[in-house]
Amino acid sequence: MEKRKKLSDNLVQLDNKKSRKKIVIRSILLVALLLVVNTFAWFTYISRAGLTLNGSVIDWDISFLNENGAIKEVIIDITDMKPGMIPFEYDIQIQNNSDVAANIDYTITSAKLLGNELLQEGQEDALVESLKTEYPFILELTSDHDDIQIGQMINFKIMLNWDYQASAYYKLNSLYTYDAGVYYYTLVDDTYQVDNTVTQENFSEKVATGLYLEKDDADSFFGYACGKYEQETGNPCLQLKVDLNVTQAN
Q1: Tens of pLDDT, residues 26-37
Q2: Domain count, the chain
């Protein structure tokens, strides 16, 4: 009887070990399954997430998975803008870790200066050019390449520079307000000529037909306006929203 009891006990212990082994295997398989699901969800998330950026460097690892591309909206807030400011630069590093080459481009979806939307429908190219030439500061968006090869990293940069030593004239737009203390100019046969007929009453009409300011006066206007706007509203003087589009190369 004692031998039978020991044999029975041994069989029970063996069954218990087998049960524990099954539980461990099931647990490992469950953890592995959750890890795969969570990893897929994470990659899906980073391909669609919106970013609010304030001036630094981020890494964006491209992974296509079952999708044909990835889009990110980048929101850039530029504050404390004034002549002679430290140049603003935001560098987005885009790494292609997929197994196919990719193309990259961007779309400006909004550009607000002093709270005013500058982007007109269908006028994105004109906006990009105006941000380079029509303001005393220069805003540029550049990338190293238009394509990203497998394993390659490229840089997409958003830069703003405000040099107060430059000599130039700037065409006025609806953001400007009349100032009796400055000289206004018209452009006649490639020559800037002082227009002494500008008044508070006809200022808007003159702006519409073409009126210009010297660089120093444009600096003073936007430098003061940006500081006043940020102090009163708590919002950035310039906010830019950009969609970065990365798609598989054909």
Answers
A1: 544 444 444 443
A2: 3
